[in-house]
Predict the 3D structure of the following.
Amino acid sequence: MKTLAQEVIEAGGGESIKACYQCGTCTGGCPTAGEMDYTPRQIIRMVNLGMRDRVLTSNSIWLCASCYQCQVRCPRGVRITDIMAALRSIAIRDGITPARPRAPAFYQSFLENISTYGRQFEPMLILKTVVRSREGIGEKLGFLLGMLPMGITLMRSRKMPLKAERVQGIEEVRRLFTNAEKLEAEG
């Protein structure tokens, strides 16, 4: 049976995970660490200790902003952002629902929008996220109704478009996704 660290390495980006000596530099520079249930340093340690369930059900892996602050600052070259992405992929693959059930749906919808438009189209992102989430219909409707006033304000002030626009060179963006899928399948 594979360890969680081995799974992360196979999912991509975790080759350096054993190099972490727990200095905390990653956590010190993380803009979302205050909202996480486990800091980036703790997540790396728990992966190395094989604490699979605790890591994959944590909010932390979904709250990573992928800003690469931790990865750039790491004195040991641990690819922390890539490890967080690998953990999200493993959780999605295994159907593990975190404490915030909308997070995996957001992650999948975000990537799908980038693949489709080459950029984000927020109204579609919100709708896809809510439809995909594992919440009940009442929670979904409540969330959408709660977002409505802000959406209307953003559209009126032209801060959020009414119509999705594709970037020039969308074929290149799609090629990136196709290549990533091929690499993942070979994995």
About this structure: The chain has two domains: 4-93, 102-186. The chain has a mean pLDDT of 90. The CA atoms of residues 116 and 166 lie 8 Å apart. The longest helix spans residues 137-156.
